[in-house]
Specification:
By secondary structure, the protein is an alpha/beta fold. The chain has two domains: 118 residues, Enolase-like, domain 1; 224 residues, Alpha-Beta Barrel (TIM Barrel), CATH 3.20.20.120. It is built from 14 helices and 14 strands. A seven-stranded parallel beta sheet has the order 6-7-8-9-10-11-12. A hairpin with a 4-residue loop joins β1 and β2. It is globular. The protein starts with a strand and ends with a helix. 52% of the residues are buried. The protein binds [(2S)-5-oxo-2,5-dihydrofuran-2-yl]acetic acid and magnesium ion (MG). The site of magnesium ion has 6 residues, from loops. It comes from Enterobacter soli. Its cofactor is Mn(2+). GO terms for molecular function: chloromuconate cycloisomerase activity; manganese ion binding; muconate cycloisomerase activity; racemase and epimerase activity. This is Muconate cycloisomerase family protein. Pathway: Aromatic compound metabolism.
Length: 371
């Protein structure tokens, strides 16, 4: 059944975080969600979200640029047109717009939501069908203070909300970062999986030293230790150490995944709908990884509930050997959905209703939307 797109509206929504979230390149106190509403024929409405981290400090598209790309270039291409599915939608977008995967991800998500609602099926069904109803979710400890992180980790373990943690390092001296990671590992106990994300902050020499120390200290996974362009360096690290590497910034699309795997990379890929251009595109990278024997991880750009749910529908259709980090909504003080997602026992449930299976709260959208 083809879906005819009638109009597309877009908002920048600013929501404060529950505490400062410190990464190697920025400290976040607020998250900006670019929210898209796609109105289709027969009154069907689809919603999508594109979210990045720290303006332009993480990726090449800022929230303002995402909104502008949608309103100025992508919406005029799509409005008034009918599409049989996300493949046709992507063909049209890619024929006239290079890159801009965050903007395309919001539109692909909104289209899938609309198509799912029109057909009366969840988005996961459009993506191949869910294998899992609930997915594991870790939490990132990133207050910037070792003792505060330990306190936060212990509280979340006691509440049973998470049982695995990722630490953000790379902003400080290597010795300080290693001490920080190993102190948290010792305080939270051997049963708890501790991973680190360096967000590209080290050069290869520092990474060699850091990987050895983190491996000896029992850290389970090291994410993106060196710059995204250093493909050969990432392959070398993955082959030299037993602690696995998680490629994040280095692997956005299936083409990146293919190049790394062909070079002999071993480890895992962090899938993110925004990096790839939408849930369907992210699953194409998953297929390349599966073909190459590379493990999978469900990644977040710290999206609100809308972007998180779009990802969950995709991640539910594949086996994620390293679980997911889809905790974005829990980092925000508020959200724009009527019913929050169900996070408990280290997991989150994938909604079962038609489309994305969540409802937008129009009052909240208006309240948080930038004027
Ligand atoms: C990233 O690079 O992984 C995901 C979790 C988190 O705390 O930050 C993001 C970005
Ligand atoms: Mg990362």
């Amino acid at each position: 059944m083809s879906i005819t797109i009638e109009s597309i509206a877009c908002w920048l929504v600013d929501i404060p975080t529950i505490r400062p979230h410190k990464l190697s390149m920025t400290t976040m106190g607020c998250q900006t969600l670019t929210i898209v509403r796609m109105t289709c024929a027969q009154g069907v409405v689809g919603w999508g979200e594109a979210t990045t981290i720290g303006g332009l400090s993480y990726g090449a598209e800022s929230p303002e640029a995402i909104k502008s790309a949608i309103e100025t270039y992508l919406a005029p291409l799509l409005c008034g047109q009918s599409f049989s599915g996300p493949a046709a939608l992507a063909e049209t977008m890619n024929a006239s717009v290079k890159g801009n995967t965050f903007a395309k991800s919001a539109l692909e998500t909104a289209f899938l939501d609309a198509q799912g609602k029109a057909l009366g099926v969840p988005v996961s069904t459009l993506l191949g069908g869910a294998l899992y109803e609930r997915l594991p979710v870790l939490w990132t400890l990133a207050s910037g203070d070792t003792n505060k992180d330990i306190e936060e980790g212990k509280r979340l373990l006691a509440e049973g909300r998470h049982n695995a943690f990722k630490l953000k390092i790379g902003a400080r001296e290597l010795a300080t970062d290693v001490r920080h990671a190993l102190a948290i590992k010792a305080a939270l106990g051997d049963e708890v999986s501790i991973r680190v994300d360096v967000n590209q902050a080290w050069d290869l020499t520092t990474a060699m030293k850091g990987m050895r120390q983190l491996q000896d200290g029992g850290i389970d996974l090291v994410e993106q230790p060196i710059p995204l362009w250093d493909t050969q360096g990432l392959i070398t690290l993955s082959q030299r150490f037993e602690v696995p590497i998680l490629a994040d910034e280095a692997v956005a699309t299936r083409h990146d995944g293919y190049a790394l795997a062909r070079g002999g990379f071993t480890g895992a890929y962090a899938l993110k709908i925004a990096k790839a251009g939408g849930p369907v595109q992210a699953l194409k990278l998953a297929q390349v990884a599966q073909a190459a024997g590379v493990a999978l991880y469900g990644g977040t750009m710290l999206e609100g509930s809308l972007g998180t749910v779009a990802s969950l529908h995709a991640w539910s259709t594949v086996r994620m050997q390293w679980g997911t980090e889809m905790f974005g909504p829990l980092l925000l003080k508020d959200d724009i959905v009527v019913r929050p997602l169900d996070f408990s026992h280290g997991q989150v449930s994938v909604p079962k209703g038609p489309g994305l299976g969540i409802e937008i709260d129009d009052d909240k959208l208006r309240h948080y939307a930038r004027q």
